[in-house]
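Reproducibility note. Readers wishing to regenerate the assembly model reported in the main text can use the exact inputs given here. Chain order matters: entities are listed in the order in which they were concatenated for prediction.
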Amino acid sequence: MEITSANQLLELSAERSQSLAQIVAEYEAFRANTTVEAVREQMARTLHVMRASVEKGREDQGELSHLITGYGRLFETADQKGRLLGQSLLKNAIIYALSVGQYNASLGRIVACPTAGSCGVVPGALLAAAEELGSSDQELVEALLVMGGVGIVSAAQGPISGAEGGCQAECGVASAMAAGAVVYLANGSNEEVFTAAALALQSHLGLVCDPLASLVEVPCVTRNATSAVSALAAANMALAGIPAFIPYDEVVVAMKAIGKALPESLRETSLGGLAATPTGKRIAREMREKYRL
Amino acid sequence: MARIGLFDIVGPIMVGPSSSHTAGAVRLGLAARKILGSEVQKAKIELHGSFSATYWGHRTDVALIAGLLGMPMDDERIPQALDLAQEAGLEYSFASADLGDVHPNSVRIQAEGPSGTVTVCGSSIGGGRINIFEINGFEVSVDGTYSVLLTRHRDTPGVISEVTKVLAIHGINIAFLDVSRKTRGSDALLVAETDDPIPELAVEHVQRIPQVIVVRTLPCF
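Running the prediction on these inputs yields the following structure tokens for the assembly.
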């Protein structure tokens, strides 16, 4: 059994009258020579680590990160003071994404999803949506399986690293994965799952990877939050019946082509974009001088 | 193309901030410890390329030491690795080095412990995946996804068939087999990657082959 594209995954689901989640679970069980129960158990453990990373990240003051300090905490404190706009879904998605990104920068234990640099996107969008919907852990595990399916078809057809494809391949793919999972959690159809994924990735096309001083901090952590919010917007648009026009598989192929067209300076080398601004260069110089080997 | 693992996409579970510069580095340190086959008392670590340029930002140094102390990449004690090394009496040094035409995220680790000394070169190739490309000057290619049997032996006829026979008797299937040597008649290195874990008894049997000098096993890591 193979999963090579969104189209093929949708066809398999229709042919076998099985859920997307079940097909992904069977795929992994076959691949890893294990059972679907074991796959679901491992996904439940992954969910547990994801939640723990949100909780720990909320408390993290950034003692171990270099540039960012307690972003989750800052956001939450401002919320408690009534300084922020919006309802709990939006605010929680941002708090969770920032917290996990902050925790990652502080050497915390996270679930790379699909990468460490984009590890806050999925917990942000998915856990905030799950709270809003009152989803059970069992439902969340199914949504995470669907999300893995979106990730697998992405990796099968395009890059999922900043070095190869820029940030669109990390936060963009993470946002697509999260959008699909949120639709699934909200009882959307299989087609709506991939419409949401396509809409989310479409809005990240061209996004470059230009971190300051080669750190996974600026602008990575705040981008995780905006990508989480994009995922929720994409999910809602898909649920509303707004079409993506370009199907997910084709969006991934476009993302890959755009990644190839990006110069190396905009693919995780910290030589272009924000990293090459006067302020970016100054920060990098200060860091290098502090830590010369 | 190999099938993409679900938990390589929704995962791995790791200590941040970078899968290649932190998680991969922990695994490289752990691999060196496992190849040494005992705790590490002394380590000389040389960082190449991007590892050397950005080690401080991604705490590649802390990660490598954590691995040398035996921690897996999701161990929450990783941030304290340098303090724990001091407690454990692990002496270490870091330097920058040019390891030649290798992956930008590469390291050479010389590790010393009760079982002897090994020099391991490896690269972190993305997403926490690694490739060990040199052990004690011998070219190898080990990625930690299989159990591995390593032997250093005298380069004489029949040794390889003796080793593979032992594995066959223990019902262990060999997925990949690689033999290398520096010159004819010198010591040679055999690397067998297997589908099944290698039991202690099989190691003892291999040890009894007269031409075999050293045997090590590596579980998947």
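We highlight two features of this model. Residues 147-218 of chain B form a domain with the Alpha-Beta Plaits fold (CATH 3.30.70.260). Chain B has a mean pLDDT of 92.
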